[in-house]
Amino acid sequence: MKKIIFLLMAVASVSFIACEKTVTVTEFSTQPIGAVTTLKTGTITQQNAPGTPPTSGTLSVVQDSKGNQFLKLDANFTSGFATGTVAVYFAKTNGEIKNQRNGGTTATNVLAVGFVGKAGEKYFQLSSAGLFTGFSFVVFYCETAEVNFGSSPLN
Known about the structure:
CATH class: Mainly Beta
Strand content: 25-35%
């Protein structure tokens, strides 16, 4: 009986500890090294109905002196972070990400870049050079509400 009580107490304390644990999304912190060349640029415009958190600013795809490529959100980037983070995608169009994912063509229509949880300058290192090739837009998408918050054409 003592073993059962001890086991129950151990499980209860682990459960309480697990409830207190906060899960956070860590933004990619790698920065470009050396000289930076701008490959593409864009200006973010808000999408959806009035009342959608404003998403605005400028961005660029850059390459550092080592050949690494990054999606850079400039210092003037802002969005709504009520749900914690906003998903960032490369996309073929600026249409709703949820619709571009339909039909099993996700790999060809959209490509997840990462999550952003606060305003200001951010760098997302791309896993391979030219990863953005074939995508015309960067889209900021709220996974919780399933709506685009904003988008930018890549010029």
